[in-house]
Amino acid sequence: MNLEDKYIDIIEKTYSTEENEEELRNELYDLDKDEFNQKHKEEVMYVPHEYDCIVEQITNALYSGFDCYLNPETLEIEQASNLGYIAFTEAEYSEQNEDLIDEFGLSYPEWDSYIRFEPFSRNDLLNRMESFVSQLNDQDLKTQLENLSNKEEYIREFNGIMERTGHLEEWNTFRKKEIENYVKNQLMRGLQINTDTEEDVYSLSE
To answer: Could you tell me where the beta strands, DSSP code E, fall in 65-147?
Structure first.
């Protein structure tokens, strides 16, 4: 069964009262993990040095929990506090956040187009936590994590365990690099979609 079929299967199960909510949550996490593993096999796209400052600014904003919006024509960046609307479409996000847009004085809804960057969802974050831990040779750390009762506790206790075992700085560096890789790929795909030719993507002088 491919990823699309798995998503459809889980959606259908949500309408059945016989299905356990925790089991469905675990199925969705496993599906997200499969998708994460597939995406992780992709190479990080090359980003010209002219965009280094943009990548850095957006990466830092996402690392701090903000959503970012980039105007592909002017390269203007706007950011706003993320309130958990990660699964919404662009239209739904704008509709649900009219008050937020007014509060921050955001103008991105008026742009002809924009590229949206989001902090990692809980499942995306959990996948990266597990990926990071798998690289470590620390059985005490792994034992502490294995003793956690569920994925919510895993996420909640993770930073504390990293700090107690001396791996917090490594984890923060790893997480920031993962965010940066996501920003690079999202940036280059977005710019290519919003320009007529690939050459336009690499020109900032016009």
So the answer is: 66-70, 77-81, 115-117
81: pLDDT confidence band, cut at 50, 70 and 90? Answer: confident
The residue type found at 17 is T
pLDDT at 176 over 90: yes
Cβ-Cβ contacts under 8 Å for 60 (sequence gap 6 or more): none
Buried b (16+ CB within 10 A) or exposed e, 120-138: beebbebbbbeebbeeeee
In sequence order, the 6+-apart residues with CB closer than 8 A to the CB of 149 are none
pLDDT for 128-141, tens place per residue? Answer: 999 999 999 999 89
Contact 162, 171 (CB under 8 A): yes
Instruction: Reduce the DSSP state of residue 56 to 3 states and report it.
Output: helix
